[in-house]
Amino acid sequence: MNPEEIRATLLKCLTDVAPEIADEEIEDDMDLRDELDLDSMDILRWVQGMHEALGVEIPEEDYGQIGSLAKAVEYVVARV
Amino acid sequence: MAEFLMPSLGADMSAGTLAKWRVAVGDTVAQGDIIAEVETDKGIIEVEVFESGVVTELLVAEGERVPVGTALAGIGQAADAHQKAGPAPEPGAILTAGASDLKLDGPAASPAIRRKAHELDVSLDRIRGTGEHGRITLDDVKSALRAPAADSERVRISPYARRIAERRQIDVSALHGTGPSGAIQARDVLSAEVPTDTKPASAAERMQKAIAAAMTRANDEIPHYYVEHTIDMSNALAWLRETNASRGVSGRLVSGVLVLRAVSLALRKHEELNATWNGEAAVRCQDVHVGLAVSLRGGGLVAPALRNTNEGDLSDLMARMTDLVSRARAGTLRSSEMTSATITLTSLGERGVEGVTPIIFPPQVAVVGCGATLERPWVVGDQVVARPLMRATLGADHRASNGHQGARFLRTLDRLLQEPGAL
């Protein structure tokens, strides 16, 4: 899976968690908590969605490294 | 035969639109089945049926907006469906109720009709019923609304002002006139708010309006008192970190679930807060169903209930909480979830601010607000150390409890959160 496909998958998982946010509102560098207003349950559900879709297991202490879509793509690309 | 009525999905709801039937005449239904979708100011709600039986008739068409309490369908035994093979009921007749619903004094009208008449500000005493035994039907109420008002009730309004009002579809009877003898003048009409019917409100605007109505009522009617307590969350968060590290992604918990469970267990010890106000007295609730305030990113707020939050293990509670919050966001909540909360919990989340002073959601008698858990100075022994602290606020109805009881509740909550393994 190339970074483009991973980005698309991560974005899909994100909009599944937050159906009120349209794809086009999400910019890659936006802070998911501060700018998109995701809370810890949303982040957990996103992490769970990524686990189901890509098999990647993100430990809680790494949540700081997936603070935006761009960071999460970078994190996942290095591990898939 | 039982009637399935338009439910009141919250203290702020007066009417709902039957968006979709999930059943047809002749279908067998069991208590708890979702049989319809109702559109309210809080979004589309899946409505469950309280009786088991067979759907004998559907009385309201999809897309129709009716007041709370209106009969939507008949639920009977299997035999009733066959008996009902006769002609369809005339439109006005669908709202008439059984004889047991009739009041002995005043004109004969079902509770639904009375409610409708009240809503439209029509006096039933002025109406001659055309239904069976002179009973007042919905059509009668509507006709009375269209009929010209009696002289004493005629609105004094200038012809010009009346034309503007008609063009703008403004109800002049609700206006306050500033002209001679209180006559309504053009400027009164122009300054009146344009009714939302003429300018379709967005779902978010309607929801905000519903919240405004409920909270205004709560602030007007409920004598609130508040108590606050700061809770050291170190133990709870350390336990959570350790637990989550040992679990796979799918089994992880969030701190909100610990707070939810602790609130639920504390309510078991302080039952005066787990109650509803019936207009005269507080009635304690047998079970603990916590309404979770969920803020929607579109701008809106719902507080659906999670049932029996004091029961089951934390993984189960976490799964149920996740499901409820996701459905609140997706707009697929169920009717029982909109009405069964015995208390409300509002949490500002970890990026929120320190504290919240919430308003009680009637008919509940208490609300718990939790600020964000933030690193702050805290005295341990004779040292000042940085600790993750959470400020918990209890807002409660002084008719149902007092500050001393409220303070004891927060102490219990604190104690429970110090032993997260026991939650």
Task: Summarize the helices and strands and which ones pair or pack.
The complex is a heterodimer of chains A (80) and B (423).
Chain A: H1 3-17, H2 40-54, H3 69-77
Chain B: E1 2-5, E2 15-21, E3 28-29, E4 34-40, E5 43-48, E6 53-58, E7 65-67, E8 71-76, H1 78-83, H2 111-120, H3 138-146, H4 159-168, H5 186-191, H6 203-221, E9 224-232, H7 234-245, H8 255-269, E10 275-277, E11 282-284, E12 290-292, E13 294-296, E14 300-302, E15 305-306, H9 314-330, E16 333-334, H10 335-339, E17 343-347, E18 366-370, E19 374-380, E20 383-397, H11 403-418
Parallel strand pairs in B: 5-16, 12-17, 17-18
Antiparallel strand pairs in B: 1-8, 2-4, 2-7, 3-6, 4-5, 6-8, 9-20, 10-11, 12-15, 13-14, 18-20, 19-20
Helix pairs in contact in B: 8-11
Structural class of chain A: mainly alpha
CATH superfamily of chain A: ACP-like
Q: Helicity level of chain B, as a percent range? A: 25-40%
The CATH class assignment of chain A is Mainly Alpha
So how many helices of chain B? 11
Biggest beta sheet summary of chain A: none
- Cα-atom radius of gyration of chain B: 26 Å
- How many domain units of chain A? 1
Determine the CATH superfamily of the largest domain in chain B: Chloramphenicol acetyltransferase-like domain
By oligomeric state, this entry counts as: heterodimer
CATH class of the largest domain in chain B: Alpha Beta
> Unreliable stretches of chain B, pLDDT < 50, 5 or more residues?
81-106, 148-153
- Spatial shape of chain B: globular
Low-confidence stretches of chain A: none
The profile of the biggest β sheet of chain B is: 7 strands, mixed
